[in-house]
Write a structure and sequence with these properties.
Helix content is about 35%, strand content about 25%.
Length: about 250
């Protein structure tokens, strides 16, 4: 019998997906919730059969097949993937990269080279106390729910989805659903229906998981995040992979 182990991201942006999986009654599965990079590890190590995977990792996972018409994407500013700094982007000399997703780190490098024409020193950041000790010329790539805590604290903020859209004319795809080839069709169909249910019940998902006290939650999930993996997003993820190979040909999954 199929074990039904699903790895998903433990951020506000996945609340509708999680709500659908747990409430649509179309899928029985054990959920593993963690940051994006840990999802890749869970899938690669066989601890998950289906996973919401960061875009950068998909080409590096031999047995990952993209499934469902749902994703984590944006055709507007995404709000939770940003570079913050007290220095204008053209003068940033050191860029700290959030350790939670290499997809956003790679996107930062693409934008620095192709849009902003800068070549800062890149620093891996898993100790976020460095953000509170910012020096002149420092920039910080921050992703996920922590971004809300830092809003308004820096003079400059650059939304990476917005920057990508301005550069390419395409939306951006941060993560897609993948499965192993042996996952039964009825399981994938059940997941599709669960995700559809969750996206159709965003207000309920916000309330169910205790986010009602966050005044930005509904606007974020309806205007910043775009859950549909349409033709434009297919083009966008292919272009991202193409550009990414130029900057990080040996990037590890995550």
């Amino acid at each position: 019998m199929f074990p039904g182990r699903i790895a998903a991201v433990s951020y506000l942006n996945t609340v509708p997906f999680i709500y659908g999986i747990e409430h649509a009654r179309t899928l029985h599965a054990d959920l593993l919730l963690s940051p994006p990079s840990a999802n890749v590890e869970a899938f690669a190590n066989g601890r998950a059969d289906i996973a919401l995977i960061p875009s950068a990792a998909v080409p590096l996972l031999e047995d990952a097949q993209i499934i469902t018409q749902y994703c984590l994407g944006a055709h507007n500013p995404v709000r939770t993937v940003v570079i913050m700094s007290d220095t204008p982007i053209e003068n940033i000399s050191k860029l700290y990269l959030d350790a939670h997703s290499r997809t956003s780190a790679l996107l930062s490098k693409i934008l620095c080279a192709e849009l902003w024409n800068i070549a800062p020193e890149y620093v891996h950041m898993d100790d976020y106390s460095v953000v509170d000790q910012a020096q002149h010329g420092d920039g910080f790539l921050l992703i996920g729910d922590k971004v809300f805590d830092y809003e308004g604290r820096f003079a400059y903020k650059y939304d990476l989805a917005e920057a990508w859209i301005n550069m390419t004319g395409l939306p951006f795809v941060f993560a897609v659903w993948v499965a192993r080839p042996n996952v039964p069709h009825e399981v994938i169909s059940g997941l599709e229906k669960a995700l559809e249910y969750g996206v159709a019940h965003i207000p309920e998902s916000i309330s169910w998981y205790g986010h009602s006290g966050k005044p930005y939650a509904l606007d974020y999930l309806t205007n910043n995040i775009d859950f549909i993996f349409d033709k434009q997003k297919h083009k966008a993820i292919s272009l991202y992979w193409e550009k990414g190979m130029k900057f990080m040909p040996r990037v590890n999954p995550g």
